[in-house]
Design brief:
With about 160 residues, this protein is of the alpha+beta class. It contains two helices and seven strands, in the order E-E-H-E-E-E-H-E-E.
Amino acid sequence: MPKAHLPQARFSIDRSIHGPGPTGLFVFILAGESTGGRSLEIGRAKGDHFEAIAATYLGARGFAVLARNYRDGPREIDLVVRRGDLVAFVEVKGRSRSDFGHPFSAIDRAKRREVSKAAAAWARLEGRPRFAYRFDAVAVLPDGQGGWRVEHLEDAWRRGE
């Protein structure tokens, strides 16, 4: 399989994070532009790109990335992040075009169950008794000006939902 070339995205972090709104959703605009785009058709490269944007966003909010693409057998967690004693297991979904629906709609019950099982494995191996855990979702969407908009839903679901 040929190695995917992903175009570099240039952006700066806008410190004026919008949110949280009444639903707990944070909206974050990454100003900048995407250069190129031919290889965005390659699914894994696209996912890696969206996860890198999400990691940058979470880093700007004080989270340290503990793991990327953590695997427990066939199950995967996109990002495991920590801020203080809080560990968040983050599912990242992105869209390069807005006509494919909102990324959060792709996080169905089966996906939440798989992430929850992988999170339980991570907590058994890497967790500490003092840690509090939650499941977050991050959506990455085009902002209409050549950059990316990030939406962060904290505590998006509970184990067993």
